[in-house]
Amino acid sequence: MSATAAGRAAVPFEDAVRRYEPVIGLETHVELGTASKMFCGCPVTFGAAPNSAVCPVCLGLPGSLPVINRAAIEYTIRIGLALNCTIASWCRFARKNYFYPDMQKNYQISQYDEPLCTDGWLEVEAGGRRWRVGIERVHLEEDTGKSLHVGGVTGRIHGADYSLVDYNRAGIPLVEVVTRPIAGAGALAPAVARAYVTELRDLMRSLGVSDVRMDQGSLRCDVNTSVAPAGAPWGTRTETKNVNSLRSVERAVRYEIERQAGVLDAGSRVIQETRHFHEDTGMTTPGRSKEEAQDYRYFPEPDLVPVAPPPEWIAEIRAALPELPAARRARLQALWGLPDADMAALRNAGALDLMERTVAAGAPPGQARNWWLAELARRANEAGTDLTALPVTPEQVARVIELVASGALTHRLARQVIDGVLAGEGSPDEVVAARGLAVVGGQAALAAAVDEAIAANPDVAAKVREGKLAAAGVLVGAVMRATGGRADAARARDLILERLAG
Ligand SMILES: [Zn+2]
Known about the structure:
Layout: H1 13-19, E1 20-31, H2 70-82, E2 86-87, E3 94-97, E4 107-110, E5 117-126, E6 129-142, E7 146-150, E8 162-166, E9 173-179, E10 182-183, H3 189-207, E11 219-229, E12 238-243, H4 246-265, E13 273-278, E14 283-289, E15 299-300, H5 311-319, H6 325-336, H7 340-348, H8 352-360, H9 365-383, H10 394-405, H11 411-422, H12 428-435, H13 443-456, H14 458-465, H15 472-482, H16 489-500
Parallel strand pairs: 12-13
Antiparallel strand pairs: 1-9, 1-10, 1-11, 2-5, 3-4, 3-15, 5-6, 6-9, 7-8, 11-12, 13-14
Bound molecules: zinc ion (ZN).
């Protein structure tokens, strides 16, 4: 039952954030892209035949014993260091006890009070300013299996005829990154939440620890939201589970702020619970009421030795960290000399790599920016696709820019060349040749067209000779007509003035 159905109308967002202060927090699960699972040798796969990547350990059969995957520890330390965390010199795994059909051991091996990484931060940009999001902890656990509920309308267990379980995912190493509460963002809270998950995704990708595909579930986000009147103690939070796109993260926070403001306006209490986000309506609905830590009866996992990464190993991992996304953006911005707004636009369009390759292929940054953010962004928009999905390579864009710079193409012709490339007619040079788009550039051909235009317009030519230079425009027009628009107008004008000088 939604808040609206219960008779409490959600408050319009602007009104809600004017009267209530939101506090958000994010718990992000990232499946690590290690070759094998967390505690056994089964491969980490996606989309394989159900229950084809399992063994006694990840099926939790009696008598099987887990062994810690060293690569998963290394990946987690890499993540912790990139998030400015302290790495524990000694920590243990814990059993988190609960029953669920996709959790066949009846406990999950996780970390509880001894996480591998603690107390870091990640800087993100939202609303034209930077926010330092505190990271409380980064811990390592095993993923659960996956249930498939068949026969119902919603795909949920309620109304289903039967359920199937696939344990291929069970035991895949899963890192959980937990933020500290983010307060003070006000109306920007939804944007900050989105910016954080975006930055975290880019960071994970640059570290090479995960493919961070939200659509395939390798990055999953739980969003905590509470609201309280300004100046009052923080309100009761809800946890919206498994939000699976960046846009949904923003929408889920926004909706919870509106909904909880409505609950408080009606004089009711916000219930501490997990909630589900619905992509189609943009609303959340109640799930189960939230368990407390004591409900899980955590205790140290007796089948595993403690993890004690030597300082030299941590130093080695730190030294091998790649350039991180924020540093890369700063470097590229300085290199390209572009303003913040352009960098933000390029990043939002996912076009930083495209820009970098275009410039590497020899294009001046300003022109590369114009092509990607104006001309090609418009075409991507028209085609309903992303810039990265357009069938044109950065090298081809650089070649078109080069042809314009050399005078072989005008801007108008260059746009037609890009049309040809996008239509699959080949490389820019092939399109120029096939469509006959080259500027009438041979000096002789242009000169012939100029002479013809002068001969055909003796009155105009006389005016230009008398010094009425504006009249030359008529002759340029004649040259452009005669060449089917393929002449460079500026060069034609220069030549006309040269011919008629003195
Ligand atoms: Zn296994």
